[in-house]
Description:
By secondary structure, the chain is an all-alpha fold. Helices cover 64% and strands 0% of the residues.
Amino acid sequence: RAFLKLHKNNETPKKKPGKGSLTTKEKTENRCILKERIVIENINAKIKVFKIIANKHRNRRTRLGLRMSLLCGLINCRGNLLNKNFTHLI
């Protein structure tokens, strides 16, 4: 819960109380949060394929933002190309 102090829009799943259980509403909220989290983690994995980001960055911070923008653009472009090429299979 310390993340709530740092990030106002942070959502964390509810924990099960000791010897208790979650309500159905809490379970559905947890599932929604986890679905969003899976998408974000998959995007992070795609970014970390590039070893520049996966390893410790030793250059200037201003260039890190530029490199991240370029990598995210490449990933978005690649995703769009894949979606266009395989739309006939769906």
